[in-house]
């Protein structure tokens, strides 16, 4: 998903050419594609992503024309990367996020994917995911996605409890989720389910119901994210006016611990702080590419990209995005080139979130000295730390920011 607020940065060149740093060592990094589909039937009250309902589009932008516009950015990206001296690499993962990608016809999503595969190719066994709302798919549409090259679908379930879904402004019927999961499996797709905990008014029993219900569908993967109240959202305004209670960090911690216990008992294991999979092969390979610092190009309005320490982001509105591409120009609104210190900070922050851990011999001497304190505070696994890998304990997962600060101070 793509946040609505864009960061500040340097101007991005209209030809999309990347600085020489981007190509350095590229052959050793994997290459992924993210495609942002910025359309939703209804804007959820908690959502701060760069999405638009049909009435918000205006300016000549349309869902019908979107696939053709996205294909133009695929073609632009291929030219820009080649002109920047990037080696030819096949795609290791592709991810369609939103918004609600499955508001577009399955044929449109397959058309965008097909253009990307034609330009770059796919590695053997490459993961190709689309997010979906349970009420935006049918057996036929999921079968068309599978036939078009998709391998995985991630359903936004969020909760199994109607009053919690109402606070989140989620419109799907919770009874629709098991049907959508069954259809996806029948079509041949792997299945992930997304949950949100800490919604105002959600009791611990409500959360347990949601986790147990998600497990009953026997998905390959479950993500559980704590609710973050973003400024400018409907939910933030409701909390400010006292219409719903504020979120509570202690409540989040208790619910995280419960989720981890239930998910582990249900046969899943954590591989990233907010993600659990049935087997290592079921982990979201696309998200792992982000956490491991690989390269990806982000297609779509507001989408972010990263290649070799160069990061850029596209203009937000679909109309401005389409106009740039119609003129043969980069849709990028700005970019930044990360220095060595920033790249190291991000490597530590992201890699430490993974169950595979952070190799202590890659840390600075100062950071290695901090490991003893992290062991004493029970934030990292002592046995694995002594063996040379920093892996968070359950307590460490709850206090991951403190671990990062200790390693960077």
From TrEMBL:
What do the Gene Ontology cellular component annotations say? Answer: cytoplasm
Give the Radical SAM core domain ranges: 25-269
Please provide an example of a Pfam family that matches this protein in its UniProt record. Answer: Radical_SAM
Which Gene3D superfamilies does the protein's record reference? 3.30.750.200
Q: Which GO terms describe its biological process?
A: porphyrin-containing compound biosynthetic process
Location in the cell reads: Cytoplasm
**Keyword Nucleotide-binding among record annotations:** no
Molecular functions per Gene Ontology: 4 iron, 4 sulfur cluster binding; coproporphyrinogen oxidase activity; metal ion binding
Q: Give the residues annotated as coiled coil.
A: none
Q: Which UniProt keywords apply?
A: 4Fe-4S, Chaperone, Cytoplasm, Heme, Iron, Iron-sulfur, Metal-binding, S-adenosyl-L-methionine
Signal peptide per UniProt: none
Classification via InterPro entries: Coproporphyrinogen-III_oxidase (IPR034505), Elp3/MiaA/NifB-like_rSAM (IPR006638), HemW-like (IPR004559), rSAM (IPR007197), rSAM_sf (IPR058240)
The UniProt family comment states:
Belongs to the anaerobic coproporphyrinogen-III oxidase family. HemW subfamily.
Functional description taken from the UniProt entry: Probably acts as a heme chaperone, transferring heme to an unknown acceptor. Binds one molecule of heme per monomer, possibly covalently. Binds 1 [4Fe-4S] cluster. The cluster is coordinated with 3 cysteines and an exchangeable S-adenosyl-L-methionine.
Question: What protein name does the entry list?
Answer: Heme chaperone HemW
The organism of origin for this protein? Arthrobacter alpinus
């Amino acid at each position: 998903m793509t946040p609505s607020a864009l960061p500040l940065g340097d101007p991005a060149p209209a030809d999309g050419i990347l600085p020489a740093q981007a190509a350095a060592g590229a052959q050793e990094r994997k290459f992924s594609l993210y495609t942002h589909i910025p359309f939703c039937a209804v804007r959820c009250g908690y959502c701060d992503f760069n999405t638009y309902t049909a009435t918000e589009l205006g300016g000549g932008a349309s869902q019908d024309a979107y696939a053709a516009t996205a294909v133009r950015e695929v073609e632009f990206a291929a030219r820009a990367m080649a002109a920047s001296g990037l080696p030819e690499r096949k795609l290791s993962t592709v991810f369609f996020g939103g918004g609600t990608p499955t508001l577009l016809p399955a044929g449109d999503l397959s058309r965008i994917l097909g253009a990307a595969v034609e330009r770059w190719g796919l590695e053997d066994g490459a993961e190709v995911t689309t997010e979906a709302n349970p009420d935006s798919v049918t057996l036929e549409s999921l079968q068309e996605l599978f036939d078009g090259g998709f391998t995985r679908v991630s359903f936004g379930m969020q909760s199994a409890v109607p009053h919690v879904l109402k606070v989140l402004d989620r419109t799907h019927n919770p009874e629709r989720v098991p049907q959508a999961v069954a259809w996806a499996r029948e079509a041949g797709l792997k299945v992930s389910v997304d949950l949100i905990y800490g919604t105002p008014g959600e009791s611990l029993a409500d959360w347990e119901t949601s986790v147990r219900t998600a497990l009953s569908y026997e998905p390959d993967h479950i993500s559980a994210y704590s609710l973050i109240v973003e400024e400018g959202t409907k939910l933030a305004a409701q909390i400010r006016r006292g219409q719903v209670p504020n979120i509570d960090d202690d409540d989040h911690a208790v619910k995280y611990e419960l989720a981890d216990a239930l998910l582990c008992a249900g046969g899943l294991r954590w591989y990233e702080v907010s993600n659990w999979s049935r087997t290592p092969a079921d982990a979201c390979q696309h998200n792992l590419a982000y956490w491991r610092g690989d390269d990806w190009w982000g297609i779509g309005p507001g989408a972010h990209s990263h290649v070799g320490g160069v990061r850029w982001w596209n203009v937000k509105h679909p109309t401005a995005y389409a106009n740039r591409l119609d003129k043969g120009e980069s849709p990028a609104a700005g970019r930044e080139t990360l220095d060595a210190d920033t790249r190291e900070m991000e490597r530590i922050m992201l890699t430490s979130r993974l169950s595979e851990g952070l190799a202590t011999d890659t840390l600075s001497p100062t950071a290695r000295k901090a490991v003893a304190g992290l062991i004493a505070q029970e934030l990292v696994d002592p046995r694995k730390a002594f063996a040379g890998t920093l892996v968070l304990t359950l307590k460490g997962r709850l206090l991951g920011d403190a671990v990062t600060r200790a390693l960077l101070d």
